[in-house]
Amino acid sequence: MFSTLDIGGQNLARHTGLTSANDLPRITVDRSISGVDLKLKLQLYKVRLLLLTRNVKLAKREVKHAMNIARGRDSSMALFLKAQLEYARGNHRKAIKLLMASSNRTDAAMSSMFNNNLGCIYYQLGKYHTSAVFFSKALSNCSSLQKEKPLKLLTFSQDKSLLITYNCGLQYLACGKPLLAAHCFQKASLVFYRRPLMWLRLAECCLMAVEKGIVKGSWAPSDRSEVRVSVIGKGRWRRLLIENGISRNRHVDSVERDVWALGGDGQPKLSLPLARQFLYNALHLLNCSELCNSKSIVRSDSSLEENESSDGASSKNSNYKNLPCNDSKASTMPAALINLNGDLKEPKGGTNQEGIQNSISYYEDICRRENQMIKQALLANLAYVELELENPLKALSAAQALLELPDCSRIYVFLGHVYVAEALCLLNKPKEAAEHLSIYLSGESNIKLPFGLEDCEQWRVKKHIDCEEANVGAAAAKNSSPEGLEDFMFLKPEEARGTLYANLAAVSAIQGDLERAHHFVTQALSLVPNSSEATMTAIYVDLILGKSQEAVSKLKHCSHVRFLPSNQQFNKSS
Length: 574
Known about the structure:
Elements: H1 24-31, H2 35-52, H3 56-69, H4 76-89, H5 92-101, H6 108-124, H7 128-146, H8 153-158, H9 161-174, H10 178-192, H11 196-211, H12 221-224, E1 227-232, E2 239-244, H13 272-311, H14 313-322, H15 352-388, H16 392-403, H17 410-426, H18 430-437, E3 441-442, E4 446-447, H19 453-457, H20 470-479, H21 493-511, H22 514-527, H23 532-544, H24 548-556
Antiparallel strand pairs: 1-2, 3-4
Helix pairs in contact: 2-3, 2-4, 3-4, 4-5, 5-6, 6-7, 7-9, 9-10, 10-11, 11-13, 11-15, 13-15, 15-16, 15-17, 16-17, 17-18, 18-21, 21-22, 21-23, 22-23, 23-24
């Protein structure tokens, strides 16, 4: 969401032309604003900073102060920020009321913000088609802003079309339209090209397009490999040319500059090799960000040690007792300032400067945790893509890197073990694959749940609902239907358990332990009866055991299933 602070200070006049020393006092008077207006502006910037650092509780108090200062004046800026606050707290209907109360919606810049913010709210409410209408209106407002003559310098700061286009991309992705989403992300990449999350979204567009059958799912050997071989020249000048599509630092080099080539319909050419490029770009940016953060932490630690050494031994010991027990790389916030819900508490008796500094530290911790979540998704997607491109060594490397991440989610630990096991099977190492899957075995033949519902809750968007509309919002969320669309969710714990049974059955069949394979695949079909991979494994086992009638019976219920070699019967759980 945007506020009027995002489109520049249109109320502050700028002087142009040559001036003499005698003109300076007059210019200063012309550019001055009243003390009350300046106080309001500073207060609004403070609220904006607190919202950016996600300190919702302190922002709530400061926005009330801003509304009191704006009383009797044009309060459009304060209303936009208050609506953004309620949006962050999860009070979406109250945010709509505040936006509708803002009176200044006549010019194109204000209208674009108004429509964009409404689009964001309806997106969070699950009304994706309604949000698309408002995003379209916001882009139309930006287009009319660009057509204004003469073109002013302020117009460039007021034009937020690329940011709105990114919102459109998210909306199209939620609606299951990967081509349109990728087209929007492509335009928004002019602004967000240094954001790992944008490259992850582009990779998701490629994966969704392949899953829906919009683009081809089989690739030539030259497309699967990162190394491309071609023949150039004739006769005695004939040579073999070997090109590396990905440079050593894992981001796209000159060989891959045409990956954004558009098709005849003007849409990006999505593919699994392109998804791999996007994932490598995101990992490169994420690793660079972690390196910069680690350097800043080392510098702050060294300055802290210098201050402690100058304070003396007694104060040094007392300070160490107050330091949090967490690793400094994982958190730089004192544990006493964070409550049980993970929200920032306001220290009693602290100054405004201390509150803002604590908000910034809290925000940096949030960014580190979010980067950790992004990295898990990137490595899991990369392992999946490499398996689809039949590069088991690359898939094994990515899946092992996923399992080595500290504090990795149980969901991604499950995916990591499944992808490692499949890669090992493709490398003709079924024994090692069985070891990765057997960690979920309880006893000889029972499998425990790889993760629970509480693990799935951690990956849902956290909403700050702490006001009188909490009960109403919960009831509305329970009864609302997202316009016939389903969220792109993880497997349910029981389905993941069935996947493990199916994969253990496949490994047991490869190893020749058919009785155990029959037991595992029976359990798998009881948990995931519609799984084509489990059904294929069951048919394979029945045929080997001589149970032709049972195999034919299963085959009648899945005549659409395409048979694969036994070492490819893994459920990738994408």
